[in-house]
Design goal:
Outer membrane efflux proteins (OEP); single chain; efflux transmembrane transporter activity; alpha+beta; MdtP/NodT-like; four-stranded antiparallel β-sheet
C-alpha cells in the first residue's frame, strides 16, 4: 500500500514539474503584458480614444447674451433697463449619433492597435526565451563534451605511457579543451547578457531570476493560414474603414441646417407718468433660428475626403493581408524545415555515437587514428548544437505563426 502511495506521489511531482515548465513562458508573457511600457502606452491611447465620443456627441454650448441700455428705450409699458437672450443650437437629426459612432469605431481601431503591440511583444518574449534556452543547453552539451575530452586525454596518456601512441595526442586534446573552455566562458557571458535583456523586455529588475525549461514546447499547425480577419492589424483597418464610411453620412448631415431654440427676456421698469395695464411687466419672447449652410464646397470636400480615406484604408487592408499571407507561407516552410532538420540531426547523432564508440574501441586496440576520434567527437558536438539551434528556430517560427493566426480571446471586461 505504501509503495503504491509513493508511486502516486512521485507521479504527481513529475506531472507538476512538467506543467510548471509549460507554464513558465505563459507567466513571462503575463508579466510582460502587465509591465511593458510600450503595451501600457498602447492601452492608454485606447483609453484616451474612448474619451472622444462624449466630446463629439454633445450639443453645442448654449449662448447667453446680456445687454444693458446706456440710454433706456421707452416702451408703452415702461423703459427697457436690460435684456437677456439664451439660444441653444441643435444639429440636424442623427448628426450627433453619427459623430459618436465614428469616434467609437476609431477607439475600437486603437484597441486593435493595442492587441497588435501586445502580440508583437509576446513574439519578442518567446524569441528571447528561446535564445536563453539555446545558450543554456549549448553550455550543457559543451560541459558534457569537456568531460569526454578529459576521458580522451586520460586514454591518450595511458597509450603514451604504454609506448603505443605519441605524446602529440595528449597535446591535441589539450588544445581542444582550451578552445572549448574559452567558448564556454564566452557563452556564459552571453547568457548573462541575454538574461538582462530579457528582464529589460519584461520591464523588471535586470537581476531577476530567469528560469528556462528543459524543452521548448510549441504547437503550430503547418499549412496555409488564409483567414486574417481576426488579426489585430486587419481588424484595426476594418474599424477605420467603417469609421470613414460613417464620415460620409456625417458629411451629408453636416450640410443640413442647424436648428436653434431660445428665449429673449427684457426687464421693463414701471412708468411713473401713467399707469397702463401691465405697467412695468417684463417681456418674454421665444425665439427660433435656422443656420443657412449655403457654402457647399466644404461639405462636398469633406464627403470626398471620407470616401477617399475609406478607399485608401481598404487598399491598405488588402496590402496587409497579402503581406501576412506571404509571411505565413515562408514561416510554414521554415517550420517544416526545422522539424526535418531536428529529425535528421537525431538520426545523425545516433549514427555518430555508434561510429564514435567504434573509433574509440579501435584506438584502444591500436586499429584507428586518434585524429579520427577527435574529429568524430567534434562532429558529434556540432550536430548536438545544430539540433538545439533547429529547435530554437522552430520555436521562434511557431511563435510568429501563432501571431499570424491570432484569435482574440481577450475578456470583454479587460
Amino acid at each position: 500500500m505504501k509503495t503504491n502511495q509513493f508511486i502516486l506521489v512521485l507521479f504527481c511531482l513529475m506531472l507538476s514539474l512538467f506543467q510548471g515548465q509549460a507554464q513558465q513562458v505563459e507567466e513571462y508573457l503575463q508579466v510582460a503584458s502587465e509591465n511593458n511600457p510600450e503595451v501600457k502606452a498602447a492601452y492608454t491611447r485606447f483609453e484616451a480614444a474612448l474619451q472622444k465620443a462624449p466630446q463629439v456627441s454633445s450639443l453645442p454650448d448654449p449662448t447667453l447674451t446680456m445687454s444693458a441700455f446706456g440710454r433706456m428705450i421707452e416702451t408703452r409699458l415702461g423703459a427697457q433697463e436690460a435684456r437677456f437672450s439664451l439660444m441653444q443650437m441643435f444639429p440636424w437629426f442623427g448628426t450627433n449619433k453619427l459623430k459618436k459612432t465614428s469616434a467609437e469605431l476609431m477607439a475600437e481601431a486603437k484597441f486593435q492597435d493595442f492587441l497588435q503591440v501586445r502580440e508583437n511583444l509576446f513574439v519578442k518574449v518567446k524569441a528571447e526565451y528561446a535564445e536563453i534556452f539555446r545558450i543554456e543547453n549549448t553550455l550543457k552539451v559543451m560541459q558534457e563534451d569537456l568531460e569526454i575530452l578529459n576521458s580522451y586525454r586520460k586514454l591518450a596518456l595511458n597509450r603514451f605511457e604504454a609506448g603505443s601512441a605519441p605524446m602529440v595526442n595528449v597535446v591535441k586534446v589539450d588544445i581542444k579543451k582550451e578552445e572549448l573552455l574559452t567558448q564556454i566562458e564566452l557563452m556564459k557571458e552571453e547568457l548573462e547578457t541575454k538574461k538582462r535583456q530579457f528582464n529589460i523586455l519584461l520591464n523588471r529588475s535586470q537581476t531577476a531570476m530567469v528560469e528556462v525549461g528543459d524543452k521548448l514546447e510549441y504547437d503550430a499547425v503547418i499549412g496555409n493560414i488564409s483567414n486574417f480577419e481576426a488579426h489585430p492589424s486587419i481588424s484595426a483597418l476594418e474599424f477605420e474603414k467603417e469609421a470613414f464610411e460613417n464620415e460620409i453620412e456625417l458629411s451629408k448631415k453636416d450640410g443640413l441646417p442647424m436648428l436653434g431654440l431660445g428665449v429673449d427676456y427684457a426687464i421693463i421698469s414701471k412708468r411713473t407718468d401713467a399707469n397702463p395695464m401691465d405697467n412695468g411687466q417684463d417681456a418674454i419672447m421665444p425665439m427660433f433660428s435656422v443656420s443657412l449652410p449655403i457654402f457647399r464646397k466644404k461639405y462636398k470636400a469633406a464627403r470626398q475626403e471620407a470616401e477617399l480615406m475609406a478607399q485608401a484604408t481598404e487598399q491598405e487592408k488588402q496590402a496587409k493581408v497579402n503581406e501576412l499571407s506571404s509571411e505565413a507561407e515562408m514561416l510554414s516552410y521554415e517550420l517544416r524545415k526545422a522539424e526535418r532538420l531536428i529529425d535528421l540531426y537525431d538520426r545523425q547523432i545516433t549514427s555518430s555515437n555508434q561510429a564514435n564508440k567504434l573509433l574509440i574501441s579501435g584506438f584502444s586496440n591500436a586499429n584507428s587514428d586518434f585524429e579520427e576520434v577527435l574529429q568524430m567527437n567534434q562532429d558529434l558536438l556540432m550536430l548536438k548544437i545544430q539540433k538545439i539551434e533547429a529547435q530554437v528556430n522552430g520555436y521562434k517560427v511557431a511563435a510568429r505563426l501563432d501571431y499570424l493566426s491570432f484569435k482574440n480571446t481577450t475578456d470583454e471586461n479587460e
